[in-house]
Amino acid sequence: MSELETAIAMIIDVFDRYASTEGNKLTLTKGEMKTLLEKELPEILVNAKEKDTCEKLMKDLDENGDSEVDFNEFIIFVAAITCLGHRKFSDMKPKE
């Protein structure tokens, strides 16, 4: 597989691994999402200024209001984080 295909497969695997620990295996509960953030994106929580960051994030991601994050909602989150990372690293590149 190419690097991009591998990255996509890894994103799917991460979602499935955490979604399979409670209830519906096709969605992330608040607890599953918090565990995913703590283990896979610890800097998000460390750099958060407010204690209820996970709670706010869940509310923002939950487009359909079912109190869970489905794969489509998760991908929107991954895309947003990727864009922020790209912007941050682009700003850090030395000017030519």
UniProtKB/TrEMBL annotation:
A molecular function (GO) term: calcium ion binding
Gene Ontology CC entries for this record: cytoplasm; extracellular exosome
Pfam families per the UniProt record, alphabetical: S_100 (PF01023)
GO biological process: endothelial cell migration
Keywords from the UniProt entry: Calcium, Metal-binding, Repeat
Keyword Oxidoreductase listed: no
Keyword Metal-binding: yes
Leader peptide range in chain numbering: none
InterPro entries noted in UniProt: EF-hand-dom_pair (IPR011992), EF_hand_dom (IPR002048), S-100_dom (IPR034325), S100/CaBP7/8-like_CS (IPR001751), S100_Ca-bd_sub (IPR013787)
Domain EF-hand residues, every copy: 53-81
Ranges where the S100/CaBP-9k-type calcium binding subdomain domain occurs: 4-46
Protein name according to UniProt: EF-hand domain-containing protein
